[in-house]
Amino acid sequence: MNRWLRDRRKSQGLTMRELGERLGVTHSYVQKVEIGERRLDVVEYVWYCKALDVKPDEGLDVVLKCAEQIAEWGRE
């Protein structure tokens, strides 16, 4: 999911600093989220998506697809 959030930010031409300003956090917070050092809870995730003007369910679809692939690998 962190890669998906980073890709959404970059596709909008936003820097980490600009997204941080939208969120009211530092750019290092955004960086930690994007590299997976900082995990978001559900409320933070929705808040993050709103700052990026993306639908939270789009990112959840990515997570579900990854989970399905992992489950398939376990059956092999």
Automatic annotation (TrEMBL):
Annotated SUPFAM superfamilies: lambda repressor-like DNA-binding domains
SMART domains (UniProt xref): HTH_XRE
CDD domains: HTH_XRE
Top-level taxon of origin: Bacteria
Domain HTH cro/C1-type: 5-60
A GO molecular-function descriptor: DNA binding
Protein name as annotated: Helix-turn-helix family protein
